[in-house]
Write a structure and sequence with these properties.
There is one protein chain. Strand 8, helix 3 and strand 9 form a beta-alpha-beta unit. This protein starts with 16 loop residues before the first helix and ends in an 8-residue tail after the last strand. It has 14 helices and 22 strands. It is globular and about 75 Å long. The strands form 5 sheets. A 7-stranded mixed β-sheet has the order 13-14-15-16-18-17-19. Strands 10-9-8-20-21-22 form a 6-stranded mixed β-sheet, with helices on one face. A 4-stranded antiparallel β-sheet has the order 4-3-6-7.
């Protein structure tokens, strides 16, 4: 479907629900302060966060603003009292990194909850955070809260709030579009902005200072602070952390010259991302969850992606039906199918193939891709235009018409997804089959929920779970003339690999891994226009190890 945007714990270290809310309350109070909201206060302005978990280490993050650069002390402890820290170190907070400071705690024990904090030179302490190391060796269960597409202006981050309140996951994963780059009134439009969601800066973010202020705005959200405070997070960037529909050497929403060079903007976007988030400065990596799973954080956006095709450009000038189908057929059999098309880039693709093989050689049960865009094949229902009627925005109607025509020619609609790079997808599938992987793909990007059985030349290769967005609108906003159930049914009927879809709800995925099965629980939040942790419903989907099939 098209993108509808304008362009297990030891008892001694268990954290009780009461303690969780103690931490959350501290975070919420901080977020309500002017310093946290503006990003320009002094002291610890944006709480704490952790990420890059391993069996014996974790990365710790905070932001401390002072009159001059300051050395902070970080501590990790098994108790909130910090009477006997198990790890300690120092890190500098400097204006050169927008006062963001990151340290790596090592020598920790596997599969354990820890508390952590930062201390300023004057003895002031940051809020206390909670983090967790990954298992080592056999593990019975591991749970991840998986998010994507969190547009501040469209509404409250209720999915983050619910995940904190549920307190049933070991790790948070964000699959991209953690922030959005647009100017105030663009996406969302002036009439779509949720009350109380004041965006800064109010212009499109292009320079380093812009990206930093946008992160400061997002990170002042109380539910996002709470999530970072109580769970380690693995994050991958998608396009909006830089600019819409970005690729290695450009982006749809970047005007070369008028907005400087793409190289400068991409560098600024990467720098701010790595300053403000608890992430390593690497484009891709693996995380070993004992013998249970290998998590592969990959980059489908900036590392080696060729420029996206535009169906509208392929169809341009073809007015008659025969000419239109001829143009689409030529494109389908030519440029679209080209064997040298890259989404990951050669180096990352080779790394992933070897990493998949290494994981299965080690006897790991699951191989899980943490990545941005849909891998399953998805075509637009061919009769969709007859159902939608009038009243659509011009850009939506144009894309729908192009997508419907593409379906008639046997082409997918979203050229920004893996569908736009079929040869690259085939190479990854081939590598997964050669490795005998139990492949689970997790994806974000589309704002809607999808469940696919993946296949390569008729051979089952794995499953994919695409997550609905935290707050960014889905098809219910644009295809208002089609009932969501009708649209979902039409999509499933049109696409053999697609087994289930939800195109009208926001939320997140809880993904549970055991040696025998992987279970995804879609958790749907209520309206994002009001702050609430109430769920509107859930849906559970499972896959048995070795089946490469979903039970929906």
């Amino acid at each position: 479907m098209l993108k509808t945007e304008p362009a297990a714990q030891p008892a001694a270290t268990a954290l009780t629900r009461r303690k969780l809310f103690t931490l959350a309350g501290a975070s919420a109070a901080l977020a309500a302060s002017p310093a946290a909201a503006s990003g320009f206060g002094t002291g610890f302005t944006h709480c704490v966060a952790s990420g890059e978990p391993a069996a014996t280490s974790v990365l710790l993050w905070t932001r401390y603003v002072a009159d001059a650069e300051a050395m902070l002390t970080w501590q990790v402890s098994e108790t909130e009292s910090f009477a006997k820290p198990v790890a300690e170190g120092s890190v500098k907070a400097s204006p050169a990194r927008d006062w963001c400071a990151k340290g790596i705690a090592t020598g920790l024990s596997p599969d354990r909850w820890y508390f952590y904090r930062f201390l300023a030179p004057d003895g002031t302490a940051s809020p206390v955070g909670r983090t967790r190391t990954l298992p080592e060796g056999p593990s019975a269960k591991f749970r991840m809260a998986v998010f994507s597409c969190s547009n501040f202006g469209f509404g409250w981050f209720n999915a983050y709030g619910h995940a904190v309140e549920a307190n049933d996951c070991d790790l948070a994963v964000h699959l991209g579009d953690y922030i959005y780059e647009y100017a105030k009134g663009t996406y969302p439009s002036a009439g779509q902005i949720a009350e109380g969601r004041v965006l800064a800066p109010d212009t499109e973010i292009v320079a380093l200072t812009d990206y930093r202020l946008r992160y400061a705005t997002y990170r002042a959200d109380p539910d996002l602070q709470r999530l970072h405070q109580v769970l380690p997070m693995i994050t991958v960037w998608d396009d909006h952390e830089s600019a819409n529909d970005s690729w290695e050497n450009g982006a749809e929403n970047h005007q070369e010259g008028a907005e400087g060079t793409w190289a400068a903007r991409k560098a600024a976007a990467k720098q701010a991302y790595r300053e403000w988030l608890p992430v390593a400065d690497t484009a891709y990596s693996t995380y070993q969850v004992g013998s249970l799973a290998t998590l592969f954080r990959i980059d489908t956006r900036l590392e080696g992606r060729d420029q996206q095709f535009r169906l509208e450009a392929v169809m341009e000038g073809a007015k008659e039906p025969e000419a239109l189908m001829a143009a689409l057929g030529k494109f389908r059999d030519g440029a679209w199918a080209a064997q040298d098309r890259q989404l990951l880039g050669e180096a990352q693709e080779a790394w992933l193939a070897e990493a998949l093989a290494a994981s299965t050689r080690a006897g790991t049960h699951w191989q899980v891709l943490l990545q941005q865009v849909l891998m399953g094949n998805l075509r637009t229902p061919r009769d969709l235009m007859r159902q939608v009627g009038t009243g659509l925005p011009d850009f939506v109607r144009t894309r729908l018409e192009a997508a419907a025509a593409a379906s008639q020619a046997g082409l997918p609609s979203n050229m920004d997804a893996w569908d736009g790079y079929p040869a690259a997808r085939a190479r990854v599938f081939k590598a997964a089959l050669e490795a005998n992987a139990n492949l689970v793909v997790l994806a974000g990007d589309t704002h809607n929920a999808w469940a696919f059985d993946l296949a390569h030349e008729g051979t089952p290769v794995g499953v994919e779970l695409g997550g609905n967005s935290v707050s960014s609108p889905g098809f219910e906003t644009y295809l208002t003339f089609v009932k969501p159930d009708t649209l979902a049914a039409a999509l499933v009927a049109e696409n053999e690999q697609l087994k289930w879809a939800d195109t009208s709800q926001r939320g997140y995925m809880m993904v549970e891994l055991t040696p025998a099965r992987a279970t995804t629980e879609y958790r749907f939040t209520g309206s994002v226009k009001q702050r609430s942790t109430r769920l509107a419903g859930t849906r559970r989907i499972t896959t048995e190890k070795g089946s490469a099939k979903l039970t929906v």
